Amino acid sequence: MTYAGGKTKTREISESGGYGVRALKDDKVGFAYCVKEDGVEKAVAEAASVSRFSKRSGFSFPGKAECPEVEIYDGNISDIDAQELGGILGQLRDGASRYSEKTKVMLTVSTGETKVENSAGFLAGYRDSSISIYVEVMDGTGFGFYSNAFTYLPKNFTAMGEEAAEMAKSMRMPLKPEAGEYNVIMEPEATNDLLDVLLPSLLGDWKRRGISKLSGSRGKKVFSGKFSLYDDGTLNGTGGRPFDDEGTPSRKIPLVENGVLANFAYDRENAALEGAEKDGNCSRTEYSTMPGTGYSNIVVGTGDYADIGEIGRALIVKSLHGTHTANRISGDFGVEVNSAFLSDGKERIPVRGFMLTGNIFNIFKNIVGIEKRAKEMGSFYCPRIAFEKMRVVS
Question: What pLDDT is recorded for position 328?
Answer without folding.
Answer: 96
